[in-house]
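Write out structure tokens for Rhodanese domain-containing protein.
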Amino acid sequence: MRWCREVFSVRGSGSGAHAIALSLAPIVTASFCSKSLVLPFQNFPFEFKLTDSSSLALTHRKQLLPAALSLTQPSTAREDDFDFVVVNFYHFVFIQDPQAEVSKHRSFLELQDLDINGRVYVNEQGINAQYSGPSKDALAYVNWLRQDNRFSDILVQISPSENGHTFPALKLRYKPSLVQFEGGMSHLPLLDPSMRAIALSPAEWKERLEAVNKTDLRAKDYHDRDFILLDVRNGYEWDIGHFRGTQRPSVDCFRNTSFGLSQEEITASDPLSNVDKEKANILMYCTGGIRCDVYSTILRRQGFQNLYTLKGGVSHYLKNEGAAEWVGNLFVFDSRLSLPPSVYYTGATAEAELTPVSGDDKFAKCHVCNLEVSELRHRNCANLDCNLLFLCCTKCVKDLRGCCCLTCTTAHRLRPVLNGMQRYKKWHNYRDMDLPEQ
């Protein structure tokens, strides 16, 4: 076997088999397989055993790659430091009785005594899950779910969690909307693939993106076609990382996204204003893919014809293509908040995780003084009653005692200043506390 970025690809047998491509990276996108593979690397020493047509096992390894490959584990690390993983997946499929489905999932987790924290939402249109847990428990849930034909081909993404659980508790329940959007989702044709955007593989996305970002936009097969890169995330996500050529979203909550919906006068904040709906190619991306799928049905109803999404979202892209055409870090919706591309991509070195944005990509600005920041990680305002998520330079952190503005520094309930990569506990830990003014 050659040690390269994509080291293993196999197709299972049978009509339900799907391809799987596993790489030497701390994130794995898995489908069906019938083989076994050991994947050792620096910060994620596990063995992935693909035991049959639907099971994926992950166990801690005792042996790592030889030192010659520069993938040895630091001597200060304990074996169980990296035993936790974060799992993300979603799937649109008709579920006749979602309440019964929730009970079925809860019974399985309780019966198996699985240590899983996170969000698992189920409704008539499918499932959306983001959770953390010990690798054995986290993947036991995935393997069990895949035994159901409705979920047999879900795209599962797995990333390491060095500090245990990234979610405080488990929320497994019926939810009318798998993602929050103004007006809900029940009326959207999410179960009709023809109404959703065409999904591009990471390689296809990269090719399109490179063509769009060239001076000559008429390259290759894209002659005389308009291309619009649409970041279907929140503004604060864009602030720490995005694809080149994308405009910062004007919203800080996906539920309020309104690209292409306004009938009023053209505004600079809407990239889809005054766009030829039949001719323009809309390239949409988000973190894991679900928001793009949802929003593409809305745009389809608005008459946009050529809609494309990034399959598996940015995390899947970084795992396969690295940081090509991407600048900064990736915002994630758990306690880790921000992850560098090197966490996902095989070819990166450990030192790359600490490398600030370089060159002309000085997009990340301090919320307070508007100067460039090198630490691409949000912090919460120390004012418990504000709790704003914002980027801040080290000087302003010190000057404002961890607050987002001068007003907040005079608040009555101030949490202690946290430096570096530390994070406050979840807000409910402070909610009922009578914190003294600092």
